[in-house]
Design brief:
7-stranded parallel sheet; alpha/beta; 227 residues
């Protein structure tokens, strides 16, 4: 049984990961809200990535950092504070977690780190300047830290397209909007959190022991295909 720390595991993708992984692993969830499910393998520690200090832990085999943001505005309406906030949530929060828990990870069993990027880091999309900048930084961390820790700890990222979560509720606001976004994706679908959690499960497992420094586009084909 592995010990998996999930930062931001109370909603959306993080919650789906916690539910799946708690079946066979010990889950430590650090988030503002308690996950809405029960498991004898789940423990919860209140944590706000913008204001709280990370707690002391005893062991970690995998670290998964899920907090994210969606601030969509034209560039002339994006404030510097918007950029700073997105960077704090997506980049600085992940860096703090890696630095804090790296000594424990190095002692772990087949240790790994999993971060989240976005299709916006590769696909030019209007109104995404702030989040694209932050997620591009996340991808840079994966490459650099992956090289630095190559013989000790694996690190990868997943770059999902829009996923049906609370965070994207303002975009997927009705059936018409959902169908319109589906049509933009070559596979004609929108991601569900459980699909992302499935890929997470593989990437933190021993089956992926030869994979590090990679960013996986889970995107319905929107980055790769022009159809």
């Amino acid at each position: 049984m592995k010990t998996i720390v999930i930062i931001g595991g109370s909603r959306g993708i993080g919650l789906a990961i916690a539910k799946q992984q708690s079946k066979n692993n010990k889950i430590i969830c650090l988030s503002r809200n308690k996950p809405e499910f029960e498991s004898e393998n789940l423990s919860y520690i209140p944590y706000d990535t913008l204001s709280d200090s990370l707690p002391e832990l005893e062991e970690i085999d995998s670290l998964i950092y899920c907090p994210g943001s969606i601030v969509l505005k034209p560039i002339n309406r994006l404030s510097l504070e918007d950029f700073r906030s997105d960077f704090e949530i997506n980049v600085i929060g992940a860096v703090k977690a890696i630095q804090k828990y790296l000594p424990l990870l190095k002692k772990g069993s087949h240790p790994s780190i999993l971060l989240f990027s976005s299709v916006a880091a590769k696909l030019g999309m209007p109104f995404h300047a702030s989040i694209a900048a932050s997620k591009a930084a996340v991808e840079g961390i994966v490459k650099s830290v992956g090289a630095e820790l190559a013989s000790k700890v694996r690190i990868n990222a997943i770059a999902p397209s829009i996923t049906q979560t609370d965070l994207s509720a303002s975009i997927l606001k009705n059936e018409e909007a959902i169908e319109r976004i589906k049509e933009r994706h070559p596979l004609k679908k929108i991601l569900h959190p459980e699909e992302v959690a499935d890929l997470v499960g593989y990437l933190i497992s021993e089956k992926a022991s030869s994979i590090s420094g990679q960013v996986f586009e889970l995107d319905g084909g929107i980055v790769t295909f022009k159809i």
